[in-house]
Amino acid sequence: MLRVTLLLSLLLTMVGCGTVGPVQPLQKSLPKAVNNATLHQKGTALLLAWDIPTRNQDDSALTDLTGFAVYKSDYDLARGCPECRPPKHLLRKIDLAYYRSNNRSSQRIYLWDSAVEEETGYSYKIVPYTVAGHEGGAVLLHRACFTSAPAVNQLTAQGLDRQARLMWLAAEENRQGIDLLGYNIYRRSGKDYFAVMPLNEQPITGTSYEDLNVENDSDYTYAVRTVIAIGDLQLESALSDEAVARPLRP
Question: Which domains does the chain have, with CATH numbers?
Answer without folding.
Answer: 35-145 (2.60.40.10), 153-245 (2.60.40.10)
